[in-house]
């Protein structure tokens, strides 16, 4: 019996992987412009880290984590998201003591969530994310949001919608929490068991419930924006002002609560509103998490970031029918005819590569016609033909495949010829 790939995961094969590389490269370039530096953390962490950061009443922690015991009896979890690990590393490596502040980091890597697989929802997916730690200035919220928007737009996406909300500071949230309890408590038995258990502990999570989202009480639930205190309001106003000033359009949606517990103040999501995009339209999510660093054992430090999955980004590109400008051609395909020429082709192709060009040859003892076909398939810029006859005369036939121009080049000038013509 053959063994198949696990549900909710995918192989990214040559032909598709080039899109991933292009996107990852673009993300790196943009991070460089914004002065964010890469951080790599382990794929698994102590389970406790996610309980404390993502939150015990979230779907991620309650239903979606890949948790296992290692041989030493420790409970470990495959990371379901990147922020917790970045904050753990920030604290552990005392990055708050670095001279350059705020600490601006980015990451890209596999995340794992045991979710019901569907279009845009995988059990293993790749998140690219950024985290800015150490600044409580609304201009950094706007920087983080505009970095995400720039990535999407630089890839050609146009059908984007930025939705923002403020979850306020802790005093605004406690006032909102009380209002939510009063709102839901009288009819809580009409809600699922998860919502029932969330009522006292974390009623905001009810607003994020996938099962009860259409219940009439959901639409009438008190909005966090009505409970923002003066300080939180001023903060949110600044974020909106700066977004407007840099020309980033947004909508305010007071029902945006995000699926993780660490957020306060700014919360945002970027959606695709391309026609034909699947049911899950969120491409990117993020927000501010003042208090998380302290929760993980560090000093009181504000933070903000976002994460987006490459899978959903690629789905959005497909929905907008955008083809990334991927170059797949090779510089030179070497066609060899005859035994001596074949022997010579080994060192010749090696020299072409040593000179910094991409080169390919035949390894299957193909006939000339088939070798040309292979060159064509690889979109070779040049096809160099070496027969025993040419070899005797120490020349090689070089054909420029786009112009059709063919030249006989002395063998000892072949590499220089290719290099010069490439420039
Ligand atoms: P999140 O909203 O859970 O936030 O996930 C962020 C993004 O990851 C989503 O918008 C989506 O693009 C992608 N994503 C999540 N789950 C899946 C899945 N099952 N399949 C494919 N893509 C998925 C976070 O993870 C936070 N750590 C974001 C953040 C960073 N907040 C502050 N800093």
Question: Can you walk through the features of this model?
Answer:
Helix 1 runs antiparallel to helix 5 and helix 5 packs parallel to helix 9 (about 230-245). The chain has helices at about 15-35, 45-55, 60-65, 85-90, 140-155, 170-185, 195-200, 215-220, 230-245, 290-295, 310-320, 340-355, 370-375, 390, 415-420, and strands at about 35-40, 45, 65-70, 75-80, 105-110, 125-135, 160-165, 250, 265-270, 280-290, 305-310, 330-335, 360, 380-385, 395-400, 405-410. The strands form 3 sheets. The protein has an 8-stranded mixed beta sheet. A 5-stranded mixed beta sheet has the order 13-12-14-15-16, sandwiched between helices. It has a 3-stranded antiparallel beta sheet with strand order 2-4-3. The longest helix has 17 residues, at about 15-35. The radius of gyration is 28 Å and the shape is elongated. By secondary structure, the chain is α+β, with helices and mostly antiparallel strands. It has 2 domains: about 15-170 and about 230-320, Bira Bifunctional Protein, Domain 2 (BirA Bifunctional Protein, domain 2); about 330-420, Anticodon-binding domain (Rossmann fold, 3-Layer(aba) Sandwich). Helix 12 (about 340-355) links the parallel strand 12 and strand 13 (about 360). It has 15 helices and 16 strands. The chain binds histidyl-adenosine monophosphate (HAM). Histidyl-adenosine monophosphate (HAM) binds near residues 83, 113, 131, 287 and 305. Histidyl-adenosine monophosphate binds near residues 122, 307 and 311.
